[in-house]
Amino acid sequence: FPLHFHIPRKMVSEGYFHMTIHFVRKLGMKVEENGSEFFIPANQRVLSTEYVAEMDLSSAFAVAALATVGGSARLKNFPIKSTQPDLIFINILNDMGVDQEWSGRDLVVRKSAPLKGVKVNLESSPDLFPILGVLCALAKTPSEITGLGHLKYKESSRLVKTKELLEIMGAQVHASDDSVTITPVAEMPRFDQTVIFDVDQDHRMAMAATVAKWAGYPIQSNDLKVVEKSFPEFLLIAGENT
Questions:
Q1: Which CATH number belongs to the domain containing residue 223 in this structure?
Q2: What pLDDT, in 10s, does the model give residues 40-94?
Q3: Please, which residues have CB within 8 angstroms of residue 106's CB and are 6 or more apart in sequence?
Q4: Which domain range does residue 27 map to?
Q5: Are 184 and 142 in contact (CB under 8 A)?
Q6: 45 lies in a domain?
Q7: What is the DSSP letter of 228?
Q8: What is the DSSP pairing of strand 3-6 with strand 37-40?
Q9: Is residue 34 part of a domain?
Q10: Same domain, 71 and 191
């Protein structure tokens, strides 16, 4: 049956919708659009027989963040012309002063300090927030991140959980329903023992806590296996044992 639908208002994470439309068209199917109206004809067939899947850029950002605080990483065959909204992380890291360079089609990220705070809207890239929050806590200047109102509907209430993690690190966090201001850590707090951080069954929070650990904080996630939902190789890359 044909499908006709209307989107009456601005979407949250709109980039993912347009990425899906782009993908469907790449497979040879038709999607007609007129402003906020969309029509998908019935009885279509997939014409393309091969499609090369890009790396997931939300996961790539996790690797880039590990490199930023503790080493180096080469992201091979990086999809620089991707329609994935999280491609914005390259610009964010650049604004923070992270050492990035191109080597052919690979993106190389190296440990960088000091980091600079940023002002960024993540309405279209919400999955970047927990890890970006950790990097902002490590910066030398404050950061303001907006477009966060829908994070409460993720695997955990990510704004609340990220605030909790950053405050463990010693950052000052002022949060509203839609935004957060992060005043970086002036000096790492004294820890008498390892802090077990409850990731609330959220893979992004587990990755964020691991980035904090790589930055030198004695923070351990209570459940690292949750990353298997989206990026099981992360544990190997981060040198974590479950």
A1: 3.65.10.10
A2: 999 998 887 777 788 999 999 999 999 999 999 999 999 999 999 999 999 999 9
A3: 74, 75, 76, 77, 78
A4: 3-40
A5: yes
A6: no
A7: G
A8: antiparallel
A9: yes
A10: yes
DSSP one-letter string for 4-36: EEE--SPPTTHHHHHHHHHHHHHTT---EEETT
Q: Half-sphere exposure (CA, 13 Å, Cβ side) for 6?
A: 1
Structure tokens given for 26? 């790449």
Q: 79 phi and psi, to 5 degrees?
A: -80, 80
Cα angle value 69/74/79 (rounded, 5°): 115
Distance CA 12, CA 16 (A): 9
Residue pair 86/107 in contact (Cβ under 8 Å)? The answer is no
Q: Which among 47, 124, 48, 46 has a CA at the least distance from the CA of 91?
A: 124
Whether residue 153 is contained in a domain is answered as: yes
For 83-137, write each residue's pLDDT tens digit: 999 999 999 999 999 999 999 999 999 999 999 999 999 999 999 999 999 999 9
Contact between 26 and 54 (Cβ < 8 Å): no
Taking alpha carbons only, the member of 186, 170, 121, 173 closest to residue 150 is 121
Question: Is there a domain that residue 36 lies in?
Answer: yes
If asked whether residues 23 and 116 sit together in one domain, one would say: no
